[in-house]
Write a structure and sequence with these properties.
heterodimer, A: alpha+beta, three-stranded antiparallel beta sheet, 2 helices, 23% helix, 35% strand, flat, B: mainly beta, Immunoglobulin-like, four-stranded mixed beta sheet, four-stranded antiparallel beta sheet, 11% helix, 38% strand
Protein backbone atom coordinates (compact mmCIF):
# COMPACT_ATOMS: atom_id res chain seq x y z
CA UNK A 1 0.00 0.00 0.00
CA UNK A 2 2.74 2.38 1.00
CA UNK A 3 4.74 1.41 -2.05
CA UNK A 4 1.74 1.94 -4.24
CA UNK A 5 1.16 5.36 -2.70
CA UNK A 6 4.77 6.30 -3.24
CA UNK A 7 4.47 5.17 -6.81
CA UNK A 8 1.44 7.36 -7.23
CA UNK A 9 3.22 10.33 -5.76
CA UNK A 10 5.97 9.96 -8.27
CA UNK A 11 3.55 9.70 -11.11
CA UNK A 12 1.64 12.72 -9.96
CA UNK A 13 2.87 15.92 -11.51
CA UNK A 14 1.16 18.98 -10.12
CA UNK A 15 2.18 20.96 -13.17
CA UNK A 16 1.06 18.45 -15.74
CA UNK A 17 -2.34 19.96 -16.22
CA UNK A 18 -0.91 23.44 -16.32
CA UNK A 19 1.69 22.41 -18.86
CA UNK A 20 -0.93 20.68 -20.91
CA UNK A 21 -3.11 23.78 -20.81
CA UNK A 22 -0.18 25.94 -21.79
CA UNK A 23 0.64 23.68 -24.71
CA UNK A 24 -2.94 23.85 -25.90
CA UNK A 25 -3.04 27.61 -25.52
CA UNK A 26 0.23 27.97 -27.41
CA UNK A 27 -1.13 25.81 -30.17
CA UNK A 28 -4.35 27.79 -30.24
CA UNK A 29 -2.57 31.11 -30.47
CA UNK A 30 0.37 30.11 -32.58
CA UNK A 31 -1.36 31.20 -35.76
CA UNK A 32 -2.54 34.44 -34.23
CA UNK A 33 0.88 35.18 -32.80
CA UNK A 34 2.43 34.93 -36.24
CA UNK A 35 0.17 37.48 -37.77
CA UNK A 36 0.32 39.67 -34.67
CA UNK A 37 4.08 40.00 -34.86
CA UNK A 38 3.73 41.02 -38.47
CA UNK A 39 1.24 43.69 -37.53
CA UNK A 40 3.36 44.99 -34.67
CA UNK A 41 5.39 47.60 -36.42
CA UNK A 42 7.87 49.01 -35.66
CA UNK A 43 9.87 46.33 -33.90
CA UNK A 44 12.01 47.22 -30.91
CA UNK A 45 15.28 46.12 -29.42
CA UNK A 46 15.51 47.16 -25.79
CA UNK A 47 18.83 47.56 -24.01
CA UNK A 48 19.21 48.26 -20.33
CA UNK A 49 21.88 49.55 -18.03
CA UNK A 50 21.75 50.84 -14.48
CA UNK A 51 20.87 54.37 -15.60
CA UNK A 52 18.06 53.57 -17.95
CA UNK A 53 16.93 52.09 -21.23
CA UNK A 54 18.12 52.34 -24.80
CA UNK A 55 15.52 51.53 -27.44
CA UNK A 56 16.41 51.00 -31.06
CA UNK A 57 13.97 50.62 -33.90
CA UNK A 58 14.36 50.45 -37.65
CA UNK A 59 12.36 52.96 -39.68
CA UNK A 60 14.13 52.99 -43.04
CA UNK A 61 12.75 55.55 -45.45
CA UNK A 62 10.97 57.57 -42.77
CA UNK A 63 11.69 61.27 -42.29
CA UNK A 64 12.46 62.43 -38.73
CA UNK A 65 9.70 65.07 -38.88
CA UNK A 66 7.15 62.33 -39.55
CA UNK A 67 7.99 60.41 -36.38
CA UNK A 68 6.31 61.13 -33.03
CA UNK A 69 7.39 59.78 -29.67
CA UNK A 70 5.05 60.15 -26.69
CA UNK A 71 5.97 58.97 -23.21
CA UNK A 72 3.31 58.84 -20.51
CA UNK A 73 4.27 57.16 -17.23
CA UNK A 74 5.61 53.77 -18.20
CA UNK A 75 4.14 53.67 -21.71
CA UNK A 76 5.97 54.76 -24.82
CA UNK A 77 4.08 55.33 -28.04
CA UNK A 78 5.84 55.64 -31.34
CA UNK A 79 3.82 56.74 -34.31
CA UNK A 80 4.45 58.14 -37.68
CA UNK A 81 4.07 57.87 -41.37
CA UNK A 82 6.21 56.54 -44.17
CA UNK A 83 5.45 58.16 -47.47
CA UNK A 84 5.52 55.98 -50.53
CA UNK A 85 7.53 57.25 -53.49
CA UNK A 86 5.56 58.47 -56.47
CA UNK A 87 4.93 55.82 -59.08
CA UNK A 88 3.93 56.72 -62.62
CA UNK A 89 0.60 55.67 -64.02
CA UNK A 90 2.15 53.15 -66.38
CA UNK A 91 4.72 51.88 -63.89
CA UNK A 92 4.32 48.47 -62.38
CA UNK A 93 5.71 46.74 -59.34
CA UNK A 94 7.92 43.85 -60.26
CA UNK A 95 8.47 43.14 -56.59
CA UNK A 96 6.89 44.76 -53.53
CA UNK A 97 8.22 44.02 -50.04
CA UNK A 98 8.39 47.47 -48.45
CA UNK A 99 5.76 48.88 -46.14
CA UNK A 100 4.38 52.39 -46.46
CA UNK A 101 1.71 54.31 -44.59
CA UNK A 102 0.78 55.08 -40.99
CA UNK A 103 2.20 53.14 -38.10
CA UNK A 104 1.73 53.26 -34.37
CA UNK A 105 2.87 51.09 -31.53
CA UNK A 106 2.77 51.43 -27.76
CA UNK A 107 5.11 49.51 -25.54
CA UNK A 108 5.12 49.07 -21.77
CA UNK A 109 8.38 49.98 -20.09
CA UNK A 110 9.62 48.17 -16.98
CA UNK A 111 9.32 51.39 -14.96
CA UNK A 112 8.06 54.97 -15.21
CA UNK A 113 10.46 57.28 -16.97
CA UNK A 114 10.84 61.02 -16.84
CA UNK A 115 9.29 62.32 -20.10
CA UNK A 116 11.52 65.42 -19.95
CA UNK A 117 14.63 63.27 -20.03
CA UNK A 118 13.85 61.31 -23.17
CA UNK A 119 16.38 61.73 -25.93
CA UNK A 120 15.87 60.48 -29.44
CA UNK A 121 17.98 60.57 -32.55
CA UNK A 122 17.39 59.30 -36.05
CA UNK A 123 20.32 58.23 -38.15
CA UNK A 124 20.44 56.13 -41.32
CA UNK A 125 16.90 54.93 -40.78
CA UNK A 126 17.48 53.79 -37.22
CA UNK A 127 15.73 55.54 -34.35
CA UNK A 128 17.51 55.44 -30.99
CA UNK A 129 15.63 56.48 -27.86
CA UNK A 130 17.38 57.04 -24.54
CA UNK A 131 15.17 56.81 -21.47
CA UNK A 132 16.45 57.91 -18.09
CA UNK A 133 15.64 55.79 -15.09
CA UNK A 134 14.42 58.10 -12.32
CA UNK A 135 16.47 58.12 -9.11
CA UNK A 136 13.66 56.55 -7.06
CA UNK A 137 13.46 53.64 -9.52
CA UNK A 138 17.13 52.83 -9.41
CA UNK A 139 18.22 49.75 -7.46
CA UNK A 140 19.46 50.77 -4.03
CA UNK A 141 22.51 49.45 -2.36
CA UNK A 142 21.88 48.68 1.27
CA UNK A 143 24.82 48.85 3.58
CA UNK A 144 24.71 46.46 6.46
CA UNK A 145 26.18 47.75 9.65
CA UNK A 146 27.29 45.45 12.39
CA UNK A 147 27.96 46.73 15.81
CA UNK B 1 31.21 43.44 -3.78
CA UNK B 2 27.64 43.16 -2.54
CA UNK B 3 25.33 40.46 -3.80
CA UNK B 4 23.22 43.06 -5.53
CA UNK B 5 26.22 44.45 -7.33
CA UNK B 6 27.31 40.96 -8.27
CA UNK B 7 23.87 40.07 -9.57
CA UNK B 8 23.83 43.26 -11.55
CA UNK B 9 27.31 42.58 -12.85
CA UNK B 10 26.60 38.95 -13.75
CA UNK B 11 23.47 39.86 -15.63
CA UNK B 12 24.92 42.84 -17.46
CA UNK B 13 28.49 41.99 -18.29
CA UNK B 14 28.30 39.47 -21.06
CA UNK B 15 31.84 39.71 -22.39
CA UNK B 16 31.42 41.79 -25.50
CA UNK B 17 34.34 40.08 -27.21
CA UNK B 18 32.42 36.80 -27.19
CA UNK B 19 29.32 38.08 -28.91
CA UNK B 20 31.00 40.40 -31.36
CA UNK B 21 32.31 37.52 -33.41
CA UNK B 22 29.16 36.60 -35.26
CA UNK B 23 27.53 39.06 -37.59
CA UNK B 24 24.83 37.56 -39.77
CA UNK B 25 23.87 38.68 -43.23
CA UNK B 26 20.27 39.42 -44.14
CA UNK B 27 18.34 40.02 -47.33
CA UNK B 28 17.26 43.65 -47.52
CA UNK B 29 13.55 44.15 -48.20
CA UNK B 30 13.26 45.38 -51.77
CA UNK B 31 10.77 47.06 -54.06
CA UNK B 32 11.34 46.99 -57.80
CA UNK B 33 9.36 49.24 -60.11
CA UNK B 34 9.41 48.83 -63.84
CA UNK B 35 8.87 51.98 -65.91
CA UNK B 36 9.02 52.63 -69.60
CA UNK B 37 12.49 54.17 -69.47
CA UNK B 38 14.05 52.69 -66.35
CA UNK B 39 13.91 50.15 -63.57
CA UNK B 40 13.96 51.54 -60.04
CA UNK B 41 15.00 49.58 -56.96
CA UNK B 42 14.53 50.51 -53.30
CA UNK B 43 16.36 48.34 -50.77
CA UNK B 44 15.99 48.85 -47.03
CA UNK B 45 19.31 48.71 -45.22
CA UNK B 46 18.72 50.53 -41.94
CA UNK B 47 21.84 51.49 -40.03
CA UNK B 48 23.99 51.86 -43.11
CA UNK B 49 25.26 55.02 -44.77
CA UNK B 50 26.44 55.46 -48.36
CA UNK B 51 29.98 54.47 -47.44
CA UNK B 52 28.99 51.09 -46.05
CA UNK B 53 27.26 49.96 -49.23
CA UNK B 54 29.05 48.34 -52.13
CA UNK B 55 27.38 47.80 -55.47
CA UNK B 56 28.98 45.54 -58.02
CA UNK B 57 27.93 44.49 -61.47
CA UNK B 58 29.40 41.40 -62.99
CA UNK B 59 28.00 40.45 -66.38
CA UNK B 60 24.31 40.88 -65.65
CA UNK B 61 24.39 40.09 -61.94
CA UNK B 62 23.94 43.12 -59.72
CA UNK B 63 25.02 42.63 -56.12
CA UNK B 64 24.33 45.00 -53.28
CA UNK B 65 26.45 44.43 -50.25
CA UNK B 66 26.13 46.37 -47.00
CA UNK B 67 28.45 46.08 -44.04
CA UNK B 68 27.17 47.30 -40.71
CA UNK B 69 29.61 49.61 -38.95
CA UNK B 70 27.73 50.58 -35.83
CA UNK B 71 28.45 48.69 -32.66
CA UNK B 72 25.86 45.92 -32.46
CA UNK B 73 26.23 45.77 -28.70
CA UNK B 74 26.19 49.19 -27.04
CA UNK B 75 28.83 49.17 -24.35
CA UNK B 76 27.65 48.53 -20.82
CA UNK B 77 24.12 47.61 -21.88
CA UNK B 78 22.28 44.30 -21.65
CA UNK B 79 19.85 43.27 -24.34
CA UNK B 80 16.42 42.78 -22.76
CA UNK B 81 14.08 42.57 -25.73
CA UNK B 82 15.23 41.44 -29.17
CA UNK B 83 12.56 41.78 -31.83
CA UNK B 84 14.73 42.38 -34.86
CA UNK B 85 18.18 41.19 -35.85
CA UNK B 86 20.98 43.56 -36.85
CA UNK B 87 23.63 42.61 -39.33
CA UNK B 88 25.00 42.91 -42.82
CA UNK B 89 22.90 42.98 -45.97
CA UNK B 90 23.41 41.25 -49.27
CA UNK B 91 21.18 40.61 -52.24
CA UNK B 92 21.76 39.82 -55.88
CA UNK B 93 19.60 40.63 -58.86
CA UNK B 94 19.76 39.25 -62.35
CA UNK B 95 19.36 42.06 -64.82
CA UNK B 96 17.68 41.83 -68.17
CA UNK B 97 19.61 42.46 -71.38
CA UNK B 98 17.74 45.64 -72.11
CA UNK B 99 19.28 47.62 -69.23
CA UNK B 100 21.98 50.16 -69.76
CA UNK B 101 24.40 49.02 -67.10
CA UNK B 102 26.81 51.94 -67.63
CA UNK B 103 24.47 54.55 -66.25
CA UNK B 104 23.23 53.03 -63.02
CA UNK B 105 22.58 55.68 -60.37
CA UNK B 106 22.67 54.91 -56.66
CA UNK B 107 21.63 57.01 -53.67
CA UNK B 108 21.42 56.30 -49.99
CA UNK B 109 18.94 58.12 -47.74
CA UNK B 110 17.58 57.30 -44.29
CA UNK B 111 18.78 53.72 -44.58
CA UNK B 112 17.24 53.08 -47.99
CA UNK B 113 19.33 52.42 -51.08
CA UNK B 114 17.74 53.77 -54.24
CA UNK B 115 18.94 52.55 -57.62
CA UNK B 116 17.94 53.74 -61.05
CA UNK B 117 18.79 51.45 -63.97
CA UNK B 118 18.04 53.09 -67.31
CA UNK B 119 16.83 50.94 -70.16
CA UNK B 120 18.74 50.91 -73.43
CA UNK B 121 17.18 53.24 -75.96
CA UNK B 122 17.43 50.92 -78.94
CA UNK B 123 15.67 48.03 -77.31
CA UNK B 124 12.55 50.01 -76.46
CA UNK B 125 9.17 48.41 -76.91
CA UNK B 126 8.28 47.83 -80.53
CA UNK B 127 4.71 48.08 -81.52
CA UNK B 128 3.58 45.33 -83.79
CA UNK B 129 0.51 46.08 -85.76
CA UNK B 130 -1.90 43.31 -86.52
CA UNK B 131 -3.16 43.19 -90.06
CA UNK B 132 -6.70 42.20 -90.71
CA UNK B 133 -7.12 39.49 -93.28
Amino acid sequence: MLLNQKGNWEAWDPFREMNQLQREMNHLFSGVQGSRSEREFPQFNVWEDINGLLLTTELPGAEPQDIDIVVVGDTLTLKGNKKAPAIGENDSYFQKELFYGDFSRSIKLPYRVDPDKVEAKFKNGVLTINLDRPEEEKPKKITISCN
Amino acid sequence: MTILEKMEKDSTSVPSSNIKAQVNTYLPRTDIVDSEEEVRIWAEMPGLDNESVNITLEKNILTIDGKIKTNLYPEGYTLRVNEFPVGNYRRTFKLGQDLNCEDIQAKMKNGVLYLVLPKSKDSGPKKISVIAE
